[in-house]
Amino acid sequence: MYVRTRTAAALLTAALATSLLGAAPAWSAPATDGPSSPTASASRHQVEAFAEDGTISHGTAPAASPYLAAPSPALSAPTAGGDGDGEVTALVHNGDPATKLDVVVIGDGYSAQEQGRFRTDAAEKWREITAVEPYATYQRLFNVWAVNAVSPESGVTGDPDRATVRHTALGSYFWCDGVERLLCVDEKAVERYAAKAPQADLVIVVSNSTKYGGAGYNDVKSTLGYEGIATVAGGNAKSGQIAVHETGHSLGKLADEYAYDGQGTYQGAEPPEANLSTLTADRMRAQGTKWSRWLGQASPDGGTVGAYEGAGYYPTGLYRPTENSIMRSLGREFNLPGREAMIAGFYRHATPLTSPTPTGTRLTAADRLTVDLPVSGTRLHWYLDGREQTALRGRTTLDLGALHLTGPRSRPHLLTAVATDPTPAVADPALRAELTRSLSWSVTR
Fold it and tell me: How far apart are CA 118 and CA 81, in angstroms?
C-alpha cells in the first residue's frame, strides 16, 4: 500500500475528513510562519507543499505575509520600457477574454531591472504546463497575461537559507508553516496585481528563485472570481509541475489521490470529486457511476483504470482511478478521469467557437463571416432558418452571397454556426453537453 509518512509540519488531523465534504478542518496554527518571522494574520488557509522527490504534504498559510513591501505609489505608471509596476503583457493572446480561460502570471522578487527576466520565467512556466495533456491539445482556449510586480529587493525570503529576509511586492517566502519548500504569498497583494489584467480566471505567482518550491491556495475567495492561486519558483526547472497539480484542484475540481499512514479508514459519504470514490470497481460498474466508463482502459499515467485503495489522505476506505497520477505525485500525467475533469474545467471559462463578428450583428449578402475553432478536430455545422446547410460543413469563412437568400430584401434570415468538440477524452454525457456552442447572426439580402 502506498502511503506518505506524516511529519510535524504536514500532519493531517482527523478533522481533515470533513474537508472532503466542504467543511473547514481544524488546523493547529504554529506561532511563526517563516524564517524568524513575527506571527502573521490569524486568517489561514490549507495549502499543499511539494518535495523535490514529487511527494506532497500539507500545511497552513496566513492570508498576509510579514515580508510584504510597502505598495508602490507609482502602481501602473507607464514607462518607456514597459517595465513599470502593474504593467501587463500578453504572453499568449488567443482572443476575447470573455471566450477564453485567462491565466494571470504575476512576478515577485523581481526588481525593475529584472522584469524582462520575469516575463522569460513566466513564459517558461507556461511552456512546462502546456507540455502536459490536456493543456497541450487545448492551448488555444487560453490567454496568458504577465503582470509586472516591481519589488524593492531582488529574490525571496528563505532563499538560500532560513535567515535570509527580503521584502517584496507580494511578500513571497519559503519556510512557510515551518516547511522549507512551502512558498507562501500575501493574498491581498496578489489580488491587487491580478486586477490589472483584463480578466483573471486562474492566478500563478512566479517568484524570483531557483530553489525548488511552491504552494497551492485552493480555498481562496477572491473578489475577482479566480479559481485559486499557485506559487512556483521561477528559476527552477521542476516547479511547473506544481502549477499543473494545483490546477487539477482549481480547474478540474479533482481531489488529492495520496494517503497518509495512520490516518485510518474513511467512513464518510461518497465524495463529490470525480477521482475519489468509496466504491470498488465492481460496485462502480454495477451502479454506472463515477469513472465506470473508463474502467479497464489504459490510462496515460500508466497502467489500467480501476479502483486502487488509498486516496483523499486515507489509506483505506477511499479509491482512486489509477496507481499514480499527477494528483498523487508530481512528474506524472493526469489519468483518464482527471483529463475528462480538466477539459470540463477549461470549458467552464472558454468556448469551442468564437467569431470576430459579434452575434446580433445585422449582416447582408455582401458580407463575409469568419469563425474560429480553437481546438483541432472540432466539428462545425451551419444552419439557415433552422435548416442545416450541409454543403457548408466545416467551413470557417463564408461569403454570405453563397447562401442564395430568397424573399423580400428586408426579410431577416437567421444564420447559426454550431461547433462541437468530439474529443474521446470526455465520456460522461452530462459533460459532453458542455462541448457544444452556437453563434447566430441576422442576414438580409
Answer: 14
Residue 118 domain boundaries: 31-250
53 with 182, same domain? yes
253 phi, psi to nearest 5 deg = 55, 35
Q: How far is CA 242 from CA 125, 239, 286, 340, 343, in A?
A: 10, 5, 36, 20, 19
**Whether 99 and 228 share a structural domain:** yes
In the listed set 220, 250, 280, which residue is the last one of a domain according to the structure?
Answer: 250
In a domain, 283, yes or no: no
Query: Is residue 310 one of the residues assigned to a domain?
Result: no
| Residue 13 within a domain | no
Report the relative pairing of strands 387-388 and 397-399 from DSSP bridges.
unpaired
Q: Count the neighbouring beta carbons within 10 Å of the beta carbon of residue 279.
A: 18
Task: Please list the helix, strand and coil fractions of the chain in percent, rounded to the nearest 5, in that order.
Answer: 20, 25, 55
pLDDT at site 73: 63
pTM for the predicted model, two decimal places: 0.87
* Residue 309 maps to a domain: no
What's phi and psi for 337, nearest 5 deg?
-60, -35
Read off the pLDDT of each residue in 84-107 and give the average, rounded to a whole number: 96
- In this prediction, residue 410 has a pLDDT band, given cuts at 50, 70 and 90, of confident
Indicate if the pLDDT at residue 36 is higher than 90: no
Query: What is the rounded radius of gyration, in angstroms, for the C-alpha atoms of the chain?
Result: 24
